[in-house]
Design brief:
This protein is of the alpha+beta class. It is about 15% helix and about 30% strand. The strands form four sheets. Strands 5, 6, 7, 8, 9, 12, 14, 15, 16, 18, 19, 21 and 22 form a 13-stranded mixed beta sheet that branches. It starts with 12 loop residues before the first helix and ends with a strand.
């Protein structure tokens, strides 16, 4: 009888080595996956940071304060331009997500005859651990590009949807300031407009399209604010003018076959004011500030011949008032403080004050009206005296009535009743 041997149990060395090899291969795969995940996470962070930097620059450029002339430290539309150094380090972004970021901005200027907007391209490049940040052309550098357009529109028009359509600044013609007369013709590639007011002897006025400031009259360089409006007349002697007549004045401003307010005035070809004291009648500019000396531009107004529109008769007027002088307070003044004075032609007197008891049928009272509600102390509400006026004003309208019929109480300015047009600031005589 033969004895049986005891069976051997356990893992051989070869099996252990094979198992370790399989495990090692698996661990290497996990390590590789971790490295890939980390790289992808870094790239994702870097790309997100690059997009944020590009968007921040676009929003900064969209947030310009004015079309032109912003104060130091503020951005205006004219300052939106390509950078002279194409790549600059972005402050606060160095070494974010293990990378160095650089940003460049390329701006296409406003075309002379195309849409009034600038095309902005913002490129953000970055160099991570795989790229050499000292080599601007390293092929391992990555980049993103965002592109947008920035319209040449005043920033305040961002609330344009809330503006009534009857006065909406979004309706401004020809991509220029709404205060510039519609008859003005674009010049200098769309940056200025040239306007020749009716009755002004053919002398041209040049406007800045963005600000509506007058920069030249004839051959004279000026800095002037534009004021315009209309003269209307309700000069019957009986009965006194009514509220309805304030809306639809009944006559054309003639007295004895001649205009109550004569047409003309304005400037000669050298920009010199004609009839500066309005001795011949018309509209006189009276300036308190800036202080004017010598050959300073003194301002002036042009009054047109009567014309008919919508069955009503008007005289239009255009005024240029000075904002700079060489006297005390100038040339640092950037606005105008003063008044416009409507004067009938010689031989026709005006009443002395709003409260005057003068009731002569040969004398005239001037009433001020404006379509902008408000108190008469505000420039937009057509005050007797303007204060610090730095922007153009339209619809600074006047109604001329007689002082009276020669007996009884003096006439007063009729109160607008809002039947034909919206209620206006009314009964503001002077």
């Amino acid at each position: 009888m033969t004895a049986r041997g005891k069976r051997q149990r356990g893992v051989s060395l070869v099996e252990a080595l094979v198992a370790m090899a399989v495990m090692a291969v698996g661990l290497l795969g996990v390590v590789g996956m971790q490295a890939t995940l980390r790289t992808n996470a870094d790239v994702s962070r870097q790309r997100s940071e690059a997009v944020r930097l590009a968007q921040a620059e676009i929003e900064r450029l969209r947030g310009f304060m004015l079309l032109d002339g912003a104060a130091s430290g503020e951005l205006d539309f004219a300052d939106i331009a390509s950078t002279t150094t194409p790549d600059v380090f972005t402050p606060g972004s160095t070494f974010v997500a293990n990378a160095i970021f650089r940003r460049s901005v390329t701006v296409t200027a406003v075309p002379s005859n195309g849409p009034q907007m600038k095309t902005v391209k913002v490129e953000v490049k970055w160099w991570d651990r795989r790229a050499d940040s000292t080599d601007i052309n390293d092929t391992n550098a990555q980049s993103i590009v965002l592109q947008t357009s920035v319209a040449k529109q005043p920033p305040e028009l961002g609330a344009g949807l809330g503006i009534p359509t009857t006065r909406s600044a979004t309706q401004r013609p020809r991509r220029r300031n709404i205060a510039i007369p519609r008859a003005a013709v674009d010049s200098s590639g769309g940056t200025t407009s040239t306007y020749t007011p009716a009755g002004g002897g053919g002398v041209a006025w040049v406007f800045n399209n963005d600000s509506a400031m007058i920069t030249r009259i004839g051959t004279k360089t000026v800095s002037a604010v534009y004021i315009s409006g209309y003269l209307r007349f309700a000069t019957g002697t009986s009965p006194p003018p009514t509220a309805a007549e304030s809306e639809a004045p009944p006559d054309n401003g003639m007295d004895g076959g001649q205009l109550i307010v004569p047409a003309g005035g304005g400037f000669d070809g050298a920009g010199v004011t004609l009839d500066p004291t309005a001795a011949a009648g018309g509209i006189e500019v009276r300036t308190t500030l800036p202080v004017l000396y010598g050959t300073d531009f003194t301002g002036g107004c042009v009054v047109s011949l009567p014309f008919t529109s919508g069955g009503q008769t008007y005289q239009a007027f255009d005024c240029a008032v000075p904002t700079q002088g060489t006297g005390l307070g100038g040339p640092f003044e950037a606005s105008w403080t003063g008044s416009l004075h409507v004067k009938p032609r010689p031989g026709l007197a005006e009443t002395g004050s709003p409260a005057s008891n003068d009731n002569a049928a040969t004398h005239y009272r001037v009433c001020r009206y404006t379509p902008y509600p408000g108190t008469s102390t505000l420039n937009a509400a057509h005050p007797a005296s303007y204060t610090g006026l730095a922007g153009a004003l339209n619809n600074q309208n006047y109604l001329l009535i007689r002082a009276g019929n020669g007996s009884g109480a003096a006439f007063t300015c009729p109160v607008d009743d809002g039947t034909i047009t919206p209620q206006v600031d009314s009964n503001t005589a002077y």
